[in-house]
Each structure stands twice: as structure tokens, then as C-alpha cells.
Amino acid sequence: MGPLELSVTDVRQRVYCPRIPYYRYTMPLERPVTAKMDLGKEEHETTSAREARRTLKAYGIKEGERRFGVNLYSEHLGLRGKIDMVIFTPHEVIPVEYKMTSGVGLHHKYQLTAYAMLAEHTFGRTVYRTFTYLTPVKKAVEVPITAAMRDHIKKILAGLREDIVRERLPKPTPHRKRCTDCEYRRFCGDVLLGGS
User: Is the overall model pTM greater than 0.90, yes or no?
Assistant: First the structure.
């Protein structure tokens, strides 16, 4: 039997707050669908429809083939995910994720790194860069993929699996503002809200 299968969402959440994916696996509750989630799904569908009609100019690419909603999987990594779009050129495979934000956070960069690694396993080609398409500002931001980022993804996956198997509660995010709207907040009795 291989490693516990995780998702790219788990990677993003582990970087954002290590407790979120831990709770999802150790206390599998029905995750509430929030208004923000519904809005995000609608925005993704709208962006995909627009992307299908646009040129690749926003990505600095003259021509290429686009595929939307691409399922990616790696048995070796024990990881799966569904990327919003993949651009195929004669020389590159480029994963693209849409975000309803005006900036790219560290958790987004590692989410893209995980997608890049999955794309490599799925398509057998090295991924050198990815993009986040920021829907509010209609801008594509390039995120280069480095060896150090790939190594960090392996550490993230190993750390999450170890916490789940040992049922060891990770430390919460040091950014307490993130806790305010978190659906798992009620389980973090040791976290005082306020601060950064």
C-alpha cells in the first residue's frame, strides 16, 4: 500500500494553516459550503469561459493549446488535484490556477508547485513555470518553479502524513486574522484571536 493520498488543496492549506488539513483527515466532518466557496466556483466557471475566447497574450505566449479542468495524479507522490487550466506549447507544459485575490500568497505558490509536480508526472515533461490568474485585477502572475520549492513540497506532504498518522495536532498559523473566518475555528481552543 502506498502513502496516504493527499490533494493539492491539502498542500495549500498546510502552508496557510497546518491545522486545516489535519482536521479534515482526523475529524472528517461534512465541510460547510460557504457563500465565498459558491462565489469562487462561479468565478472559476466564468473565467474558464472567458479564457477559452482569449489569446495567450496575458501569459506572454504567442500560441498554444489550452485544456480546462485537468485532473492530475501521481501515485509516486500520493497526490491528486484538478488544475483550472494547462497551456501546452511545443516546448512547455504550463499549469494555470485562477484566484479571486489581487496578490499571490506563499500558500498559492506552493499550491502551484504541487500542480507543477503533478503535471510532470501526468505528462512526462518538466514544468519550469506556472501562472496564477488574478481574476479581480485580470492579471496573470508568473510563478517560477525551483528545485527548493519541489523539495519543500515533499517535506509538506511528509509532515502532513506524519501528523495525521500519529494524530499529532500541528501548531496553528501565526497569522491570527486567518482564524476569523475559518470553519474549523471552534476546534482551536488554544488560539486567541487578535494580533497579525
Answer: no
pLDDT in tens, 47-70: 777 776 778 999 999 999 999 999
**Closest to 114 measured CA to CA, from 124, 127, 123:** 127
Task: State which CATH number among 1.20.120.430, 3.10.310.10, 3.30.310.50, 3.90.320.10 fits the domain covering 6-187.
Answer: 3.90.320.10
pLDDT in tens, 100-129: 998 999 999 999 999 999 999 999 999 999
